[in-house]
Design a protein that fits this description.
single chain, alpha/beta, eight-stranded parallel β-barrel, 19 helices, 13 strands, globular, binds iron/sulfur cluster
Amino acid sequence: MRRIFVQGKIHPEIQVGMREIPLNDKQIPSLRIYDTHSIDVHPIRSTWPKPAEGLTQRQAAQKGIITPEMEYAAIREGVAPEIVLKELAEGKAVLPANKKHPECEPMIIGSKFLVKINANIGNSALGSSIEEEVEKMLYAVKLGADTVMDLSTGKNIHETREAILRKCPVPIGTVPIYQTLERGDLCWENFRDTLIEQAEQGVDYFTIHAGLLKDYIPLALKRTTGIVSRGGSLMACWMQTHKQENFLYTHFKEICEILREYDIAISLGDGLRPGCIADSNDEAQFAELKTLGELTKIAWDLGVQVLIEGPGHVPLNKIKENMDLQLELCHGAPFYTLGPLVTDIAPGYDHITSGIGAAVIGMLGTAMLCYVTPKEHLGLPNKEDVRTGVITYKLAAHAADIAKGNPQALLRDKALSRARFDFRWEDQFALSLDPELASSYHDESSPSTHSKYCSMCGPNFCAMRITQELL
Ligand code: SF4
């Protein structure tokens, strides 16, 4: 496995890092795969030409300008840059890359492209250090996280984020309301100052709960689990206390103007996402989704790229309705969902309950899946939980890519199946999502990697070996 670089054609100054897996296969001698893991993180974008007049990627696309970032993302996806441009111009995709995060390797999030995954990290009041959070970020990216959200709510939020950003080759997202509370009271002025502080550091996308309106609160209070979004519950409390409309909604244009200056994408938060199956697809959830659709148009008109956040806890039979309504109400803006978890009864296994929903909603068109770790509902994830969450979600995203017929995804499956049938164990491990685990499971009970069977069936009952004798 090695990292190779593909040079841009429109912008020869760009060198796109990819992973190449050499194989002992005459038909598929090697495979190039999308690689989030840059070993040598440095400010690659600092020398690239910037769009004139400080245009955002969306505005540049609307003017027909293919930026270096667009070409970079296109090469990674194996598509023509014109496709990236078109999807960006129409708002069906986002390319989150703050002008102040030059270390960020450009990538694109949209239903026409590979399904992406996000890993959440960040400390809480009860634990973790800056070093641990940087380590979790690097680990998540090594395993394939396409974006990372720093959800720190504990100590040293600014310093933690700075350390993460300067070492991170993927877009970083945050929920700025968390740090607003560190500044003092929850109010527009403190929120605005937090936005600017984080924008200056280089955050690439912000989750902002601007669609949770005062009138929707009573709808949520009738639920089994009420409001389960941290940002949503904080804003609901503020509105009830002050008897005022959500200041993120009333100041939405000003928020967009700040975001446009840095080219930060907005991820319109689902403060009323259902926290259990009983609350899924209810009036509160869809009322907020409708407002997110209205805000999408405002942000687009101001040149800002938009993602729409989605649930949550949704049973399998109600997932399609979520996707259909999101597309209809939010005008085709890319959907970014947390799972969804398809049942509530498996704490400790929620990476799986949510991975099932994520694969289904990904297949239906969701562009990015926010991972869930086994610690969901139970505690702050550690490094091992990050590993389990990322691999589970790479699996869900890949399953969705396969169902959507993505040629890169299909070729990797074909290459692995051929390696498996040929007993090329090393190739099989190298092509797998978690080579280390696959190889260790094999080695703990099976003979060498030269044998034509494993300990599952043994030499006399190995069906693939017996089939080969028939050929
Ligand atoms: S022994 Fe069984 S599980 Fe192992 S390679 Fe052969 S058919 Fe597959």
